[in-house]
Amino acid sequence: MDVNANSRSRGVFCTIVPPHVLDKLSQAEDSALADPARRTLERDALERTRRRITTVRGIAAPTLEGAPSDRPQRTIYDSQHQDALPGKKVRGEGDTATSDDSVTRAYNGLGATFELFLKAYGRHSIDDAGLALDASVHYSEDYNNAFWNGEQMVFGDGDGEVFLDFTIPVDVMAHELTHGVTQYTANLEYFGQSGALNESMSDVFGSLVKQHVLGQSADEADWLIGAGLLAERVTGVALRSMKAPGTAYDDDVLGKDPQPATMDDYVRTSRDNGGVHINSGIPNHAFYLAATALGGNAWEKAGRIWYDVLTGGELSQEAQFADFARLTVAAAQARYGDGEERDAVRGAWEGVGITDLDAR
């Protein structure tokens, strides 16, 4: 099967801030909080529709002659607070840095993501064929999100009240770019448990990129997604916590982080594509447990096992948590044998309440 062709048939539009967070904000009595959230929801709905239309029309896969380069091909655009994409080109690959911090952070974040996938897994960009990495900063006005639209990254500046500039956390950039990796590999259906796995893969590799940039071991990492993104008035530390799902924020406006850590608290909902940003806390926590049990640099063993499953061709687009768990146990055994790696992965899934782990 041509996975790349199949991935282009889907109209997936992936954002870092879950819709339930923006819904909550849009109901705030303070218009400084509610208005940007409403505008962001409107922009997201429009971009989601555009993504569906684009994929129905079809996009030709990029073609490259010869072996892909070991260097990224980055282009950063400035949307100048407009809605049209990509905007004005402000920095190309190898160009001198500008005075715009958002441009610099986006450029560096794309490079850091490219580097992790290349050095750790031998992957050449999102599609493993050297796909150019494009990003637009300063998108729209007070835009409280960042997204991958199937072709490029887009970053808002935030409203300054709840969210700051979305280029600040490198894991936000890596999270969204990993949606592209998933698009070109397993292409997990963006609904229910397969959608939560899709989101979790982005959190996993987003966290690994941050750890790689900072040179942190699994024990040294904070395992937070979006640390530094929340404004000072918000009672919280990040958007999500892989170490302790459900504890990232507890705010009078945002509400409490709804992520479960185990299957005992699995959330059944029709919202958010069946809770893809909520129940992703369960596989997130399983990865954290596996990585910390193994120790060392998380991208080396735990990340390698997760990457093997994502790209191995056996993961169904409609995979459930138990399906993915069984494949990670099998992948650990295939790569490392009947040792601590397999036991750590098995123990991690059992720790989140998934026990049906024998190969079928």
Low-confidence segments, given as residue ranges, are 1-10, 53-61
Inertia-based shape: globular
Question: Approximately what portion of the residues adopt beta-strand conformation?
Answer: 5-15%
Rg for CA atoms? 19 Å
Looking at how many chains there are and whether they match, the oligomeric state comes to single chain
Order of strands across the widest beta sheet? Answer: 1-5-6-4-2-3
Encode the helix/strand succession as letters: HEHHEEHEEEHHEEEEHHHHH
Describe the structure in your own words.
The longest helix is centred in the first third of the chain and has 27 residues, at 31-57. This protein is globular. The model is unreliable at 1-10 and 53-61 (pLDDT under 50). The protein contains eleven helices and ten strands. A hairpin with a 4-residue loop joins strand 5 (146-148) and strand 6. It has helices at 3-7, 19-26, 31-57, 101-121, 170-184, 192-214, 272-275, 281-294, 302-311, 321-336, 340-351, and strands at 14-15, 74-78, 88-92, 133-137, 146-148, 153-155, 224-225, 240-241, 250-251, 255-256. Helix 4 (101-121) packs across helix 5, helix 5 (170-184) packs across helix 6 and helix 8 (281-294) packs antiparallel against helix 11 (340-351). With 360 residues, it is of the alpha+beta class. The strands form three sheets. Strands 1-5-6-4-2-3 form a six-stranded mixed β-sheet, with helices on one face.
